[in-house]
Amino acid sequence: MQHLTTTVARVLFGFPMAVFGIFHFMHGANMAGYVPAWIPGKVFFVYLTGAALIAAAVAIITKKQGRLACLLLGALLLIFVLTIHLPALCNPEFMQMAMPQFLKDTALAGAAFAFAGIFEKEET
Hints:
By secondary structure, the chain is an all-alpha fold. The chain contains five helices and no strands. The model has no long low-confidence stretch (mean pLDDT 92).
């Protein structure tokens, strides 16, 4: 039963990351507006993020380099929290829209780090 639940959990966690990654490619120009102003090449970074999300999803679902993928995914999500969502929370105009994204990415980062621990236990 544990094998089934961990497999289902990996797919339920990884699949949305792949979808988020695909959305980055489908809506790159629109998402570029969320990239902080001090970062050049906004659309490039949106596409790079999309590729990273898809790669993480594949690694998590297939258990190939899953621990590394989860550590990097957790770090990426915390970078989003610190550079995109936290500054938006400080702006009263965007606070209501930013809070759900802040909480989502914080929770997903925590889950990614938890999965990294699970992968580490499975590898040893």
